[in-house]
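Please decode residue identities from the backbone states below.
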């Protein structure tokens, strides 16, 4: 994955975290930060990022640096308490579910109100520390430039930084965060802004943040950055799946060739179908795939991340509602495979699945409306299982293409699943049987 994502700085930071972060993890982090209505302390942010305690502090900080680089977060500062001489950092999320119209989101309104309240207090603190007679006077931007430079110069050494520079740096961080949340191109004409700041800055520098000197982005562009990062990790996940599939196919091919070369008299058939020409050619390969599907290590990979599964199901269900055929597109196949492996490890059925993952926010009793949605959920799951079946048995159907042979192959696979798993077939194993029958157009199912 050598292409540039957003810019070189972002690309380098992404490549730095790919060894320990995958698509599901980064997606969960972004979902947690979307419409986050409060100021986030460093400890709280570390908890959101390191939610399964698999990262060390260095790795967590690398992810925070990436979020700041794409401006998904704004860092604001407060004067440190308990005798410390430095400032403490806090964060505000700039990721909103509707970046085109954030004013309709309660979290956006809460954050803007919170920043304005802090600015009211900070303007007074700033003017008091600058010995100005009028504590409500708006802060000149040019003064903040000087305080930011002073603070950064002194931070490199073990020198006590003056309260003036500290309060200027705090005000500058609030200025940058507030302008991002305001999400306006003509912010300097906003009456509320002018109550806090007096902008006498060069117009060519107006769109630069005071602290980072980076171009200030709109909420829409920040949302686009988030999607770019997610797409990058999704592409990596897809590439890994393709690599695993190639590796598995090569192993299956080698095993099939070995089975064909073995003396047939030494083979003990447990099913007469294995003695047919089709069974002799493809039986061993099909049995190997079935065994791999129901391996306990595979089907328990997500059983401790229910929230991750909820996000996965919600994503796929939205795709299904919009355009059902899109479930088989490359960007959705890995999600379908992950969901099926999770379901094969569960002992509940479609009713509990619907209640937990799809309709858990209804105010009326679940049993009253479940009959209305049961068929829709059944169709959704069947399509997901069909995508899973197509992917896992792709090596077979790459060769078997005629309708008659597809039907025979599907019937063969169904019978082998029953014979291999028997009474151990999990609850959602029957959805796999149903999906195979539907794929092969076997009317008896």
């Amino acid at each position: 994955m050598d292409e540039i994502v957003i810019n070189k700085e972002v690309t380098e930071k992404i490549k730095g975290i790919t060894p320990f972060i995958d698509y599901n993890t980064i997606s969960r982090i972004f979902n947690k930060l979307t419409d986050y209505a409060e100021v986030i302390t460093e400890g709280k942010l570390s908890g959101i990022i390191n939610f399964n305690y698999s990262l060390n502090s260095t790795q967590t900080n690398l992810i925070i640096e990436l979020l700041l680089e794409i401006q998904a977060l704004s860092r604001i500062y407060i004067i440190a308490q308990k005798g410390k001489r430095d400032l403490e950092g806090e964060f505000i999320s700039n990721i909103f579910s509707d970046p085109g119209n954030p004013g309709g989101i309660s979290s956006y309104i809460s954050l803007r109100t919170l920043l304005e309240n802090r600015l009211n207090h900070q303007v007074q603190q700033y003017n008091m520390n600058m010995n100005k007679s009028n504590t409500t006077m708006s802060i000149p931007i040019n003064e903040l430039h000087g305080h930011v430079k002073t603070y950064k110069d002194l931070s490199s050494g073990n020198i006590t930084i003056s309260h003036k520079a500290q309060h200027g740096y705090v005000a500058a961080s609030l200025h940058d965060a507030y302008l991002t949340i305001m999400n306006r191109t003509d912010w300097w004409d906003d009456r509320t802004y002018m109550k806090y700041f007096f902008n006498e800055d060069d117009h060519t520098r107006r769109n630069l943040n005071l602290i980072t000197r980076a171009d200030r982005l709109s909420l829409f562009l920040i949302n686009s950055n988030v999607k770019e990062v997610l797409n990058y990790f999704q592409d990596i996940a897809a590439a890994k799946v393709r690599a695993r599939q190639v590796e598995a196919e090569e192993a299956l091919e080698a095993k099939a060739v070995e089975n064909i070369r073995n003396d047939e008299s030494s083979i003990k058939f447990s099913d007469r179908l294995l003695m047919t020409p089709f069974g002799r050619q493809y039986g061993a390969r099909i049995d190997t795939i079935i065994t791999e599907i129901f391996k306990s290590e595979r089907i328990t990979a997500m059983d401790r991340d229910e929230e991750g599964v909820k996000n996965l199901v919600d994503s796929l269900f939205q795709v299904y509602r919009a355009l059902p055929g899109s479930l088989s597109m490359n960007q959705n196949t890995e999600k379908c495979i992950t969901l099926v492996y999770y379901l094969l490890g569960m002992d509940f059925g479609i009713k509990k699945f619907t209640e937990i993952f799809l309709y858990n926010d209804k105010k009326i009793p679940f049993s009253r409306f479940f009959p209305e949605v049961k068929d829709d959920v059944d169709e959704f799951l069947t399509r997901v299982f069909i995508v899973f079946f197509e992917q896992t048995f792709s090596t077979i159907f790459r060769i078997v293409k005629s309708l008659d042979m597809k039907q025979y192959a599907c019937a063969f696979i169904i019978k082998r699943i029953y014979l291999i798993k028997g009474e151990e077939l999990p609850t959602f194993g029957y959805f796999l049987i149903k999906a195979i029958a539907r794929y092969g157009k076997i009317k008896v199912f």
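Observation: The chain has two domains: 8-224, 262-439.
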